[in-house]
Amino acid sequence: MADYEGTHVERHSIASYMVDGKRLLTPTLMFNLLQEVAVNHADELGVGWDYLHQFNQFWALSRMDVEILRMPEWLEEVNIITWPKKNTYLMQPRDYQIKTMDDEIMVRSTSNWVILDGEGKPQQLSAYENHLGVVEGLHAIETPASRLRTGVPCENALFKPVVYSNIDMNRHANNSAYVTWVMDSFDNEFHDRHILAFLSINYLQQTRADDRYAVVKQETAPNDYLCSIYSEKDQVEVCRVRTLWKNR
Hints:
36% strand; 10-stranded antiparallel sheet; alpha+beta
C-alpha cells in the first residue's frame, strides 16, 4: 500500500493522551488522526487550507464510515494511509486505512468531503480538478459512505453548551467533537463492557460556539445504536450517527 501511486502515508505512535481506560485509541482521537492525514494530503496536493482560505473556502466532512477490526493500542506504531477517489460534481470521496508495521489492517474507512464557502454553500469541484489527485480502483471500503435516512426524535433532550475545546480553526465545532458528544452519551460502565466496531456519521449542519447541543439515542438492535445530535436553535438535527459495538 505504501508504494501505491497517489496514496499518502504517515507513521504515528499511539501516545498516552490518545487512549482510554482500556489503553485503546479513543474514537475521538482516531477521527483527529484521520482528519489530520487528510488535511496534510490536501495540502500536499495543492488544495489545502491555506490555498482555499484565500477564496474564503474550506474542506468540510459530509459523511464517514469507519470499520474497526482492532483498535490501536497504547505505544503501538501505526501507518495511516489515505487517498482520494473519483469525485462527483460536489462530493470528494476519500478512503483511509490504519495498519500495523506488519501491514495488518486495523481500521478501514471511507468518507465524503465537500468544499464550502464562508456562507456554507458547496462549491463545484471541477475548479480544482488538477489538484484532487484521484486514485482509481483502490478502495478501503468499496461501498460509498452511508446515508443515514432516519434520526431519533428530539424528546426529553438535555442541551449542553458548545465549549472552547470543540471549536476548530473554521470557527465551527470540529468533526471529532460530534464523535466525542456521542461517545460521552454512553456511560463508563457501557464503555468498560463494549468496544466500538463500526461508526457511521452524517454531518447535516454546522454547529458554532454560541450554540447548545443535545444527543438523543435509541438501541435499534442489540449493540446497535442510532444517535441524533440537535441544536437548541430551532431544535434542528445537525448530525446523525450509527454505532455498532462488540461485547468485551
